[in-house]
Amino acid sequence: MEQNTVLSTDLLIDVLQVSKNNYAVIVPNKIVFAVDASQDDVKALVQEERNNPENEYASGAHTCLGAVEEASMTLLPTFDCNMRCIYCYARGGDDQVFMPKQVAKGAIDAIRGTSNAQSLSLYFAGGGEPFLNFPVMDFAVRYAKQLFHEVSIAIVTNGTFGAEQLEWIIQNEVSVRISCDGVAHDYQRQFSDGNPSRDVVQANIRNLVNLNREFMIQCIVTSNSVRSMVESVDYFANLGVKTLKIEPAHMSETCRGNKDMTPSPQEFARNFIETLKHIVLNGLPLKPIFRTFPTE
Ligand code: SF4
Question: For tag attachment on the chain, is the N or C end more exposed, with fewer CB atoms within 10 Å?
């Protein structure tokens, strides 16, 4: 598989070529994507970031952030994915791009060098399925533990991880959020070969329940699944899920699939209220979290 190319390292600004004409400019506190860009565009972007007063630490000598007690950073280990969810905002799997160890190390060094923090919150998130770059994640955790007294780890995953990753979650007391769409899962979240993925995800949810681990489920509701929220809540309650985040699909130009998958706010609200009533009236031991629609 293709590895992403580190084109340049400009003090704390890295430029990675993600694929032809697509670049990621990595500044310690953010990643800026340059899509359909020429190398001149990327150079101009790097210059802009270097001149950005918010990136003072990237323009010369590192500036200590002062007496910060806890630092946090998010790593995106890969854009590759073993699933092809119909609403994927990142088109996970379209690019087989993996963060090299040197980038993870550089990011951790950067946050160590610019902060007095004794503890680090390290998040692994998508753009793809983080566990597909498990060796780099494991390396990042081990390395961070050498540099910080305390490291807390969190991951957002599609829940298709194997036994080795489950053991890693337990050993490192990782806070886990699993994406699972309940009764609509096999329609909305298939493997890249078109096979259903719910059985695999469900087995991992059961594993975490049986191990008494706290975790959260994130359930995306589309215009197709908005009327099955109650069934999905029953499904999760039967599995032993305690915390459930229900979120409407937010479609944008970058999303995979057609753009009319966002449920209408009225229909979403009506069904969400019915779902809350269902939880309360049936005494389901499940805490629902609701994310609203974006405002323009
Ligand atoms: S698992 Fe996540 S990254 Fe992969 S296709 Fe689905 S939404 Fe996208």
Answer: C
